Each structure stands twice: as C-alpha cells, then as structure tokens.
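Slide 14.
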Amino acid sequence: MAEIEIINTDSSNILNYGICGYKSIKREGYPEKISWLKDRFKEGMRIKTLYSEKDGTQGMIEYLPGKYCWRPVEANGYMFIHCIFVGFKGAYKGKGYGTLMLDECIKDAKKDKMHGVAAVTRKGSFMVGKEFFLKNGFKVVDSAPPDFELVAKKFVKKAPDPKFKGGMEKRLEKYAKGLTIIRADQCPYTVKNVKEICDTAKKTYGVKPNIIDLKNYKEAQNSPCAFGTFCIIYNGKIVAHHPISKNRFQNIMNKELK
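Slide 15: predicted structure.
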C-alpha cells in the first residue's frame, strides 16, 4: 500500500474508513449520515477517501450528478461537489491532495459525458473558498446572498451555466415568525449541534424551535438558504447560514434580542 492513496468509498466499505471525520457508529450523526449516503449511492453519489497508511483517513470528496444535489442550484448535466476537505492532521495540508481528489471528480464527470463540474463556495467554516477552485480552472458563474458563489468548470462551452435557484427570499417568507432550524443528514455534525441548540433555545430564551428535516434533494433545492442543508431562521431572518455550535447560537440570539 502506498503512503497516501485515494479509495473509492461505497456502501460496501464505508464503515472501514469513516465519513466526515467520524468513524464510530455510536457517535451522533454518523449512523444518520451512513443511512443518508446509502440512499444517495442509488442516485450516483460518489465518495473518494484520502487515506494514509500511517494516519488513516485524512480527507474526502463527496459529489453526485447535479440533478440530485442538495443545494438550491440548477445544475443538470454537471457533476456537483457537496464537500471536499483535506487534513485532520496539519502535515497533510498544502500538499496538493485537494487537487488530487478534485481531479478524480473531473475524471468521473468526463467519463459520464457531463457538461462539467460545479460547487457552491463561501469563505469561512464548512465550505471551501472559491480560490481553490479558481486555481484549478473553475470560474464563478453565479452568486447568492449573503456571500455564496457558484463555480463551474465547463467541458462543453455551449452548455448552460449552472445557477442558483431563484425565489429564495420568497421561500423565506413562510418562516416569518419564531425560530426555525432547517437541516439534513448530509452533514453529520448537525445532529448533535441541533439537539444542543434546541435545548439552549428552550432553557435560555423560552423558545421551542421548529425543526425541518429535509428528506430528499427536491426539498434541499427549495431551501431559502444557499447552503441548502442547514440554516437557522429567526423571525424571518437567516441568522446562521451553515452549521454552528450552541455557543455561537447564544451569541447570535443575544445580539438579536438586544
């Protein structure tokens, strides 16, 4: 076995390598993510795991045909990347492993005769910044509030660009009152975080959140937030656009209630 390799991860071997840094079936969020993935594999989901013989799993990339993506994006004909990350240990960062995994996605997209590859980007936690994609030949093709950008690498010049689905502000109107948390098992971290946020909301602010669990890609594509699989809405305003901790939630609510 090589020092570092990329492994095709599917329902037959995923328990051997873990997912999103989780490997214990007893850890909250892990069983839910595994169950979610098994349904997605039927839709063409692919997971590539960056594996070190010495240190185990050190990264992954998750992608599937754009028709089935869990972001409010129109990307039919494109391969769509949900997430990509490298380096639970710092020694694996900055070594080109991210590009190595991205190349695997590009190869698969070309093999499947797709228009190209697309992804949603944003600065900060939980998403890769656009710079990584730009240096690998992608271009920004659309944007969405507050600072999300959609990037694409096209193989077919005449193909339509992917784009964010319109009407997000309109879809937000139905959450004009109270506290709403929209989530999906696409991100295993949200299981524990949402439980803690709900407990904090009730005990500290006397508010019972309305929890919306997204069950399929169509529901995710009609999210009022460009992240798609998570957001927190308070009285019609999105106060968190990606998964957060209970402490971050408290800081946000304290500002909102001033």
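Speaker note: The two ends are 58 Å apart (CA to CA).
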